Amino acid sequence: MPCESCAVQFSVFKRKRVCYECERYYCSGCLRRGGGAMCAPCRVLATRPLSRSSIAHLKVRDLQCFLQRQNVSTRGCVEKDELLSLCVSHVNSAAYRRRGARSASGAFTLKGFTSNINEQTFALYKYVA
Ligand SMILES: [Zn+2]
Ligand SMILES: [Zn+2]
């Protein structure tokens, strides 16, 4: 399995390093120590608020990988444009910020919880109107 970024084959001279965010493999040249061993695409995707222009140069694969980690389905997304929109709208949505503050194990409960709240709020609005 070669480096995600420059596709070099790993060897004694090109050590394999793993990005702690996406857990993909990079060579020591592409993933440097210091500042956390996060790869370039992950660093860009970790900026908040996320802007479309800042992720426009990322590879389709990086975007798909990111969305999959967030449990966002990329089915039906053919164009890179669609993936970009999906990333930006997901990251900047309130749901993502709430989930990010919690541990990964709480994600499922939180999902149900959030949709319950939405339903209640909706019912409340109807009541008020
Ligand atoms: Zn590399
Ligand atoms: Zn990464």
TrEMBL record:
Q: Which GO terms describe its cellular component?
A: cytoplasm; plasma membrane
| Molecular-function annotations in GO | ubiquitin protein ligase activity
An example GO BP is: negative regulation of extrinsic apoptotic signaling pathway via death domain receptors
The protein, known as: Putative RING finger protein
Organism source for this protein? Operophtera brumata
The root-end lineage is: Eukaryota, Metazoa, Ecdysozoa, Arthropoda, Hexapoda
